[in-house]
Amino acid sequence: MSDRGQAGHSGPEPVAVRVLKLSDFRSYPSLSLRLDAPLVAFVGPNGAGKTNLLEAVSLLTPGRGLRRAAYGEILRLGGAERWAVSAVLEHGAAETRLGTGWERPAPGGSDQGRIVRVDGADVPSAEALLDHLRILWITPAMDGLFTGPAGDRRRFLDRLVLAVDPEHGRRSREFERLLTSRNRLLEEGAASSWCDAVEAELAGRGVAIALARAETVALLSARIAERSAGSAFPAAGLSLTGEFEPLLAGRSAAEVELAYRRALRDGRERDRAARRTLLGPHRSDLDVVFAEKAVPAALSSTGEQKALLIGLVLAQADLVAATSGMTPILLLDEIAAHLDPNRRAALFARLSALGVQALMTGTDPLLFEHLPEPGLRFRVEDGGAAPIRGA
Amino acid sequence: MKTSTIGPEIERLIQLLARLPGLGPRSARRAALHLMKRRESLLEPLARATAEAAAAVKVCSVCGNVDTRDPCSVCTDPRRDPATLVVVEDVGDLWALERAGATRGRYHVLGGTLSPLDGIGPDDLSIAPLVARVAAGGIDEVILAVNATVEGQTTAHYITDQLAGTAARVTRLAHGVPVGGELDYLDDGTLAAAMRSRTPF
Q: PANTHER family recorded for this chain (chain A) (predicted)?
């Protein structure tokens, strides 16, 4: 973790993007924006490029950004060969320059992945960005989070865990690789002792993943319980479910690891027939209910689900600030659309109270009419963004 | 530069140089040019040295090291401790340990790591000869000096399993704080590993 954060501050250090520059990024040939406010709204018609701006910021954290797009898709149409995002990040009184970009491989060449730079120097992995900022987001694609497939909720949860525990990314990648290895070995009928070795490593990573998730869920639940009284956003009751979860109860990590190894060993025939590994944290689900009524989130209205999701992410923002020592940056795409005016005002007030920088989008300027000062509104159109005066 | 502007002999040299680790086509051209400009002082001695090495190089039938004699000079060195066997992934790792003078033991080179995704299995590595060496007796300790990667550790697990029936004690290298390293700069995983494998002072 960074040298900031635990340096004895009384509260989390405010972190904000002050300057955002794009080149050949989606609809923007080139753009430079000063974001001198904690709350920033981008307003414009559908297809104007508002979400592109949030996506650009979302690439300043490990992963493929809030659209999960292939890097080639991000290139501006019309002959561009490389895209880039750079930002000046302000934390306390200091500034850090962050940059990321990708270049289309030459014909016959291989994709070099995306380049990440901190203060002008290449860093080997995007994970280094987590030393400088944490980013959380809510997008319309997440509207179906509670009703959709378990995989989406697992990915959502893993992003939450990653913001608390930066090791989670590497651990998950190694787990996936070992899982693929095991499936391959079973398919090829490899020697039992070889499977043993892979399963031993697999079990270690798997249990670490499950424990990290359980820890984040427990921390998050505690935050929600603390802050939800009288809030405009309903409290979420969170639990992890799945065949794997009962293994964890009341045992030490070493015992769980051993139990998982045994279960993997005993399940080889079954997994061979299924052509995949049926037991493990890769099959877990995040169960979300309305804490007050114990009603499953999936059974309530779209607006209520949205409010629940917002409440969850606000609690996460609070948790991330406490554990990482930096306020996270929130990207809230089409956030105001499903909220009535009371909840909208409550959201703005909560964001101000958290002291986070939030970048929001919406089609209607009226949605952001009551943005608390100092708020900043931009009109987005034709590959550019201009500040709206006199808010 | 068009390839047709260079003679085929030079083009062949460039192509071969480009296959060396760390050299791309561009740096291979530069290296070739450098060699040709210093024909007597560099190119010809290099050609002779290459030919001599090609004629003399042998892979040690005991440990898998690369040397000009078989068994290699490490295996035949009487000052070496025959009861300690250090298992490494590649000859490069053996040389690194030798450079550091880190051990008086003898070596066993695996020739890689287990990797189902790359199609490398136990039979592709020198694991059976290792087990046979240890089973023959006289070895008290097998030190697994493999990389701290997923593949390296999986391979270490596998070997530990294979050696379970023998009299030798199996150990692995410590994971943790590098010498001269500052805690502040270590990643969380390394710090946790260092804390777990702490030793009495």
A: DNA REPLICATION AND REPAIR PROTEIN RECF
